What does this fold into?
Amino acid sequence: QVQLVESGGGSVQAGGSLRLSCAASGSISVINVMGWYRQAPGMQRELVATMDLGASTNYADSVQGRFTVSRDNAKNTVYLQMNSLKPEDTAVYFCYADIWHIGVVSTTRRDYWGQGTQVTVSS
It folds into this structure.
């Protein structure tokens, strides 16, 4: 079993910064992609930023240049540095991991999600 535990959410005024962390633990062979999605009230969950094993990143257009995703593979941890926050960044932020489980006979791949952490940006 795998768990993703997020930390670092909170409330901040527009223009401020927050840093989110997410640590994965449990039965993990390889974490391929790790990153963040968010969901605002009444909206669908959307990509924020991800990073793969080769350190290639993918950002939503709305956060490009303001948010930075990074990973510490030795700690199975992903971070999201959020600068110049805007009220429209208010959402529940979910950690995501695409994890490979390498067995003797076969390899399986599964998506995992954290429980979510609230980020609120006031104007």
Observations:
- The mean pLDDT is 96.
